[in-house]
Design brief:
This protein is mainly β. It is built from one helix and eleven strands; from the N terminus they run ββββββββββαβ. It has a four-stranded mixed sheet. Strands 3-4-5-9 form a four-stranded antiparallel sheet, with no helix packed on it. A three-stranded antiparallel sheet has the order 6-7-8, with no helix packed on it. A hairpin with a 4-residue loop joins β4 (35-42) and β5.
Length: 125
């Protein structure tokens, strides 16, 4: 099973890529060790991205806005931006795409996310 993994200090969390399997399921707002993270994964592009901010203890207000021209579009404070924007309004957070077995071996005390992600509204090109 493939996962997207993040580490925040001594806390580790794996997000099963299968939790993003339904068409359009692409975003998870989460908090790991008081650090807000928005985990995104696009099966079409087979790429992930994780966003964060300096605030602590509260979820980011990032929302999934649409699917446009083969790319996810997010919304923050009523302003849309594309998943692969070079200068997003949030900071990038380091992550790894790997297998569950490799991640569990490196981080035996890891948490795992298996839940549902948000589904975007399709906005045709």
């Amino acid at each position: 099973e493939q996962i997207l993994g993040v580490s925040v200090d001594d806390a580790h969390r794996a997000y099963l890529l299968s939790s993003f399997n339904l068409i359009g399921q692409k975003i998870v707002n989460d908090i790991v060790n008081r650090v807000p993270l928005t985990v995104t994964y696009c099966r079409v592009n087979q790429k992930g991205r994780v966003f964060t901010s300096a605030q602590r203890g509260e979820n980011l207000e990032l929302d999934l806005y649409a699917w446009e021209k083969g790319e996810l579009v997010f919304e923050l404070n009523d302003k849309p931006f594309n998943m692969f924007d070079e200068n997003p309004p949030l900071d990038d957070y380091a992550f790894i795409l790997t297998t569950w077995g490799e991640w569990k071996t490196r981080h035996p005390n890891t948490d795992i996310y298996t839940g549902e992600a948000k589904i975007p509204v399709r906005r045709d090109e």
